Every structure is written in structure tokens, then in C-alpha cells.
Amino acid sequence: MEAVQTNTRTYNRTLVVVVMMIAMAAGALMQTSLGTAIPSLMKAFDINLSTAQQATTWFLLFNGMMVPLSAYLANRIPTKILHMVAYGLLFIGVLVTMSTPENSGSWWIFIVGRIISAMAFGIMMPMMQIVILNMYAPEERGAAMGAMGLVIGMVPAIGPTLSGWILKQDHTILGFTLSDSWRSTFLIPLIITGIALVLTPFLMKNVIPTKKVKLDFLSLVLSTIGFGLFLWGFTNVGSHGWGNVPNVLVPIFAGVALLVVFVWRQLKLSNPFLDVKVFLTKDFTIPSVVGILAMMAMFGVEMMLPTYLQNVRGLSAFDSGLTLLWGALLMGVFSAISGALYNKVGARALGMVGFAILGLGTFPFLFLTPETPTIIISVLYGVRMAGIAMAMMPMTTKAMAALPDAKTSHGTAANNTLRQVANSVVVALLTSVVQNVINNNTPSNHLKVTEPLRYASKMLDASLDGFKIAFMISLGFAVLGFILAFFVKQDKKEEA
């Protein structure tokens, strides 16, 4: 345990990080455990895959809308108060989601709960990075960010396994029965959030100095509506298709137009709402993009693989989650390893090796069949997650190291904004690809009656073809990430 003296206040850095990691674990579980529960939600609410995926895409939409605001909030509101508000919102959002009645007409209540949670998570993620960057010296940040990567990477990867275990059967723990309902998948994040909320007044400290920063309301409007329209257009791709004008193309292009105005305004303001000039620093921009590619490669497959395992392979929710468990463990192990190696070998070497491993683990997914042994899938997924862990957090740390301390809040907000936009796009892209392939290859209805076995076989083939294309896109992220990682600047101390 290490105490730090700042602004006449003594506080323990470790305890501050522990509180944030507890809350982040709850948010990450709530976000990603949904992947295994998607088939259960489809049955409970009587909805199709693209509608069920809205639970993820709407989450990412509002998450992305909130992140640009985080730089202003971090500088304007005391750290402790801001964390209490964020954790309180997360608690309310999870509670609303798990309380939604099971019918298609109530699906909007489920989405509202997800939106509230997303607003909280949109504050929490960048705030954790900003606090770490303010508490630790540059030479200490690799290990600290590695610990953060443990939560960001490992906990979301554990989510599908935990969710599958819950959905398998009722469980009795200390006399309390945890039902096999999809609602129970939100109970653990709710409890963890409650613990973080209780601990925050006592352990969280005002790490970030506050200052009177004027809020540029026009920038807030442009940012919120611009990102909102852009991401909303992508959320509609799965249900409406890429060629739909009013629901897909108009929101996307309108969002882009507003974001162009937003960027232009930030360049003109003396105190910008979000300092986009951080992207003029090449040593910040390139590692940021490389780290985002790693996140896209992880998030897209992480959301699609449980559906493949359950709908194509016929695995139960628990078995599909268990298949991904080794990936979760390796993600945690290699996050810690990459954090320890960061100061010794540098982000470029870790990134290139990580993306090479990611590519090797992804390529065999292009040849999946309904009979592929689950142990093979588990091993390949583990290899992928190890590669992602080696590339993602070192690149984020490298990007932040390129900025002066005064710019860290804006750099973190900018990095996380791009990450959330990219995640929303990749989920919409992969979902639409799978759904469109299935729609285009669905056999005629009369075959379902006359030859049900042949109908089922053709549907299985259509689903498998869609998933293979999704995996091919993920492989493209790995290849592009490897190429861009080569251009990340190598510090002299890393070359020694």
C-alpha cells in the first residue's frame, strides 16, 4: 500500500484504484455477459437477433455520446462526487434492465435501462484512465494500466462464462437461490455496483484538480446529436440493411456533417469542449488507432461467438460460456505480462507480436463447421485473447505518454470516444453481415413443412456462412493492426 501526498491531502493510490476496478468490473460484466444471454432474450421477449443486438448497440451509442463530455466533467466536478454519480446511475440502469417485463412491447424498458447504464459507463471508463494518469509517474503507468487492462479485458471475457453458468440451472448459494433466468445475469453486477457505491465516499479521493471551465453548450449539442445520429444509423443496419435511406444512410451522413462542424468549432475555441488537436500528435494518434483495432477484433467476435456456439453448434448457454473461459484467463495473464514488459520492450514490439498471435488465432475460424470440436474453438479463442491483451493496453499507455499531463483528460476522452464509435460500428457491421447472409439464404417456407430436415440444414449452412464472414472481417483488423503497429514510435530506452 502506497500513500501519496497531493494538495495537502494524503491518500492511498492502491485503494483508489481498487474502488474503480470494482465498479469497472460491474460495468464490464453488465456490458458483455449479455452476449451469452442473447438467445435467452430472443425467446423471452419474442424478438429476432438484430432486435436483441440493440441491447448492445444502444449501449455503445449512448456510451459513445457520453465519453466526449468526460473531459469537461473530470475538470469541473470533484473526482469523488463524479464517481458517486456514475456508480449511482449504473446501479439504477442495471436495476431497470433486470426488472423489465418479458414481452416484446416492454423491450423499450430494457433498452432504457441499458441507456442509463451506458451513460454511467461512458463516464467511468475515461475517468479511470485519467485518475491513473494523474496518480502515477510515466515510468509507473505501464504496470498501472496493465492492472486496468486486467479488468477491461479479463472481466468482459469472464462475462459469457458466468452468464452461461447462471442460465444453465438454478443455483443455491448460502441459502439464497439464484434462478436460471436472464435477469440473474444482472444481479451480480448490481451487487458489485452497490459495493463500489458504498465504498466510494470513504476510499475515493479528489485526485484531479478542479477548475472553473466554461461549458460550450453548442459543442455539447453538436457532439451529442452528431455522435448520436451517426451511431444510431449503424444500430439500424442489422434490421434495415445498408441501403435503407431514412433509417441508416440519413442518420449516418447527418451525424458526420454535425461532427465535422463540431471539430471545426473545437479548433476555433480557446478552451475547447474536446481538444481534437491531440490528434495532430502522431505519437498519440497511431497507437490510439492500433489499440482501437485490437478492441474491435475482441469485441466483435466476443459478441458473435456465443450465438454461433448456441445457434449453430447447439451448445447450452453454460457450455458456450465455458468454451470461452480459457480466453478470459489468458486475457488476464497476458494483460499483466504486457504491463510488466511495457518499459522493457516497448509498445511497438508488444503490439506487433500481439497482432501476429491474434491473426494466427483468428485464421482457423474461417474453416469452422458444425462439427468442429469445442476444445479447438476454446484454444483458438484463448490464443486470440492473449494476442489482444499484448496489443491493446500497451498501445493505450503509449498514446497517453505522448501527451503532456494537462492534455490527458482530453486525450483520454478522444481515445475512448473513437473506441466506442468503433465498437458500435463493428457490432452493427458483424450483426448485419450475419443477418443479411441468413436472410439471403433462407429457404422457402414450404420447405419447412415438406422437408423440415433439409430446411434446418440450409438454415444451419446460412448461419455458418454468415459467421465465417464475420470472422474474416476480424482477421482483417488483426492484419491492419500488425501493419500500423510497425509505425508506432520506438523510444530510445526501448531500443537499448
TrEMBL record:
Keyword tags: Cell membrane, Membrane, Transmembrane, Transmembrane helix, Transport
Annotated source species: Fructobacillus tropaeoli
Descriptive protein name: Includes anhydromuropeptide permease AmpG (ProP)
Database matches in InterPro entries: EmrB-like (IPR004638), MFS (IPR011701), MFS_dom (IPR020846), MFS_trans_sf (IPR036259)
Lineage: Bacteria, Bacillati, Bacillota, Bacilli, Lactobacillales
Subcellular location: Cell membrane
Main location: membrane
Domain Major facilitator superfamily (MFS) profile residues, every copy: 16-493
Transmembrane segments: 15-35, 55-74, 81-101, 107-133, 145-166, 186-203, 215-234, 246-264, 284-304, 324-342, 349-369, 375-396, 417-438, 469-488
Bilayer topology: Multi-pass membrane protein
PANTHER family: MAJOR FACILITATOR SUPERFAMILY (MFS) PROFILE DOMAIN-CONTAINING PROTEIN, MAJOR FACILITATOR SUPERFAMILY MULTIDRUG TRANSPORTER MFSC
